[in-house]
Structure to design on (260 residues):
C-alpha cells in the first residue's frame, strides 16, 4: 500500500510518495527495472515513470498523477474507455520494448523468470491497480517490479485475467458473469490488435500464468520471504486455484468468444 508522504526509515516496506517521487526499497532486480524505464524514455514512450536513480537502499521514480485503484473500488476503471485505452497503451508499451529487446533481454536481474519466445519485455502485472487514469483514459503504467522478457501473449494472458476479469474471485459490480467477462476480454484483445490466430492459446496461457504465480508464492515463502508466507497463510493462493478451475471449465466458451 502506498503511504502518502511517509517518512524514510526502518520498517517501511511498501512504496511511499514524497513530493513528485515514489520511493521504494532497492531490490536485486531494481537495476533491470531502471534500465527498462530509461530505455522506454529514450525510445519515446512517455507513459511510464521516469527513473530518478537508486542506491543500495532506495530507488526513486517519478509520481504519475491520476486516479488509481482496482476494478472493485474504482468505478471509472471499469469503463470500456478505460479497458480499451489500457489495451492500446499495453500495445504501445510492448512495441516500444521490441525496439531495444536484445540489450534488455540479455539482462539477468528480473524478479520473474524470462519466458520464451522473447518478443517483448512483459510488464508482468498489467492490472487495473497498476495504471493511472486521467479523464477516464488510462494514461500511465506504474509498478514495473515484475517486468521480465517474454512473449506478448504471456503478458496479455494475465492482463485479461485482471481486466475482464476472467475470475470468480475478483468481484466488481456489473462485471459479474462469464459472458460479460468474455466480452470485455475480446474488447481488450481487439484494442491491443492481437491476431485472431494467436488467441486460442490464451486460456491455457492464463492457467499457466496463474500456476506460475502460485508456484512463485510457494517458493518465495519456502525461502523465508515473510510477505508470501503470510499471503499463503491467509489463503491468497485459493483465489488463483479456484480461477484455474473456472478458466479450464469454461475454456471452450472463452476461446470461442475471443476468436469468433
Ligand atoms: N509512479 C507512480 N505514480 C503514481 N502512483 C504510484 C506510482 N508508484 C506507485 N504509485 C501508487 O502506489 C501504489 C502502490 O505502488 P506499486 O508500485 O503499485 O506497489 P505495490 O503494488 O507493490 O504496492 C499504486 O497502486 C499507486 O497508487
Ligand atoms: Mg502495484
Amino acid at each position: 500500500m502506498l503511504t502518502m508522504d511517509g517518512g524514510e526509515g526502518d520498517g517501511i516496506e511498501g512504496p511511499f510518495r514524497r513530493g513528485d517521487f515514489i520511493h521504494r526499497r532497492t531490490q536485486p532486480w531494481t537495476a533491470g527495472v531502471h534500465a527498462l524505464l530509461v530505455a522506454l524514455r529514450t525510445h519515446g514512450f512517455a507513459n511510464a515513470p521516469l527513473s530518478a536513480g537508486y542506491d543500495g537502499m532506495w530507488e526513486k521514480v517519478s509520481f504519475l498523477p491520476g486516479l488509481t485503484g482496482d476494478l472493485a473500488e474504482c468505478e471509472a476503471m471499469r469503463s470500456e474507455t478505460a479497458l480499451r485505452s489500457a489495451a492500446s497503451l499495453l500495445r504501445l508499451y510492448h512495441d516500444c520494448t521490441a525496439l531495444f529487446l536484445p540489450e534488455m533481454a540479455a539482462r539477468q536481474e528480473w524478479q520473474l523468470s524470462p519466458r520464451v519466445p522473447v518478443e517483448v519485455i512483459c510488464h508482468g502485472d498489467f492490472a487495473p491497480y497498476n495504471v493511472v487514469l486521467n479523464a477516464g483514459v488510462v494514461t500511465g503504467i506504474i509498478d514495473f517490479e515484475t517486468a521480465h522478457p517474454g512473449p506478448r501473449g504471456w503478458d496479455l494472458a494475465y492482463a485479461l485475467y485482471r481486466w475482464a476479469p476472467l475470475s470468480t474471485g475478483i468481484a466488481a459490480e456489473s462485471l459479474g458473469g462469464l459472458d460479460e467477462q468474455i466480452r470485455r476480454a475480446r474488447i481488450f484483445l481487439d484494442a491491443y490488435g492481437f491476431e485472431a490466430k494467436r488467441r486460442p492459446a490464451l486460456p491455457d496461457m492464463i492457467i499457466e500464468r496463474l500456476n506460475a504465480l502460485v508456484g512463485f508464492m510457494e517458493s518465495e515463502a519456502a525461502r523465508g520471504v515473510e510477505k508470501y508466507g503470510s499471503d499463503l497463510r491467509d489463503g491468497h493462493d485459493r483465489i488463483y486455484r479456484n480461477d484455474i478451475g473456472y478458466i479450464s471449465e469454461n475454456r471452450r466458451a472463452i476461446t470461442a468468444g475471443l476468436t469468433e
